[in-house]
Amino acid sequence: MIDYFALALIHGLLALAVIRLLGRAALDRDPQLAEDGEKPKRPRRRGRDA
Q1: Distances (CA, A) of 27 to 22, 34, 38, 44
Q2: What is the Cα–Cα distance from 27 to 48, expressed in whole angstroms?
Q3: Of 8, 29, 40, 42, which residue has the fewest beta carbons closer than 10 angstroms?
Q4: pLDDT tens figures, 11-25
């Protein structure tokens, strides 16, 4: 019985954490984009020498 309770408790807490994280407004904004007003630049890749 305690095993089912422990599993339910842990899964419930994990689900609550995911719901709270997904509800944050910070996930809707990119701080770098808001500061510069431009898209963040990707680093250049180095080509391999053939």
Answers
A1: 7, 13, 18, 26
A2: 36
A3: 42
A4: 999 999 999 988 887
